[in-house]
Amino acid sequence: MIAQHPEPHQIRLENVLTALGNPTRMQILRVLAGGGEQSCGSILPGVSKSTLTRHWRVLRDSGVIWQRPYGRENLLSLRREDLDARFPGLLDALIAAAGSEAGEGDAAGSEVGEGEPVGA
Amino acid sequence: MIAQHPEPHQIRLENVLTALGNPTRMQILRVLAGGGEQSCGSILPGVSKSTLTRHWRVLRDSGVIWQRPYGRENLLSLRREDLDARFPGLLDALIAAAGSEAGEGDAAGSEVGEGEPVGA
Fold first, then answer.
1. Is the ipTM of this complex over 0.95?
2. Which of A7, A9, A11, A17 to mutate to test the interface with B (most CBs of B within 10 A)?
């Protein structure tokens, strides 16, 4: 395991909220919310490695994710047990909030072009 | 009402989390969670007015609080209905998390001096 993970009792609400107050990191949370470990290269295809490395660090240092080396990559997973024990209900509320906001985004996207009759 | 409040649909999760990822603003949230309006001068006695003005702005612009002029002061209240409608369960989970963390702090504080027998 990479060294800089806080112990469960060191996880601070302030750091968790600051870490997740960012759309890319919230997107990463939503992917990891599915459970299990994901290789760091597979989570957000198309985002540069250096950008992602910064995001993994913020998420790891705040106590939101586990990060462990595996071959030439890192595997990432959500610290669900630690977060649920420390802040009951918070993680699920955050994931639901992120999902509902992302759903609105999708809906807005699907509205593009609506109201323009085809061939008019 | 002061002008810069976002409309309910403009409240962004990212902004709410960034606003609350700060111990002073989380403390303000806990005070306002009791309900009703509070005058801005009464919420955190001992903190300078200019510091608080900055915190009110962040909380207001992110959609966490209402702020309205009342005589020479402002009255503040939590936008509970808007936040609950937009992100169900999130506000209560955040308030509970802040409370449990503050409780740990209090518990740690009350331990000061324990283990030192009086008069030893």
1. no
2. A17
Give the domain range for residue B18: 8-99
Look at residue A69 and tell me if it is in a domain. Answer: yes
Q: A111 to chain B: which residues are within 8 Å by CB?
A: none
Cβ-based contacts of B18 with chain A (< 8 Å): 17-18, 21-22
Would residue A20 count as lying in a domain?
yes
Is A86 within a domain? yes
Walk across the sheet containing B73-78 and list its strands.
Answer: B38-39, B73-78, B65-70
pLDDT in tens, A20-68: 999 999 999 999 999 999 998 899 988 998 999 999 999 999 999 999 9
Residue of chain B whose Cα is closest to the Cα of A62? B21
Radius of gyration of chain B (CA): 17
Could you tell me the CATH number of the domain that includes residue A83?
Answer: 1.10.10.10
User: Does a structural domain hold residue B2?
Assistant: no
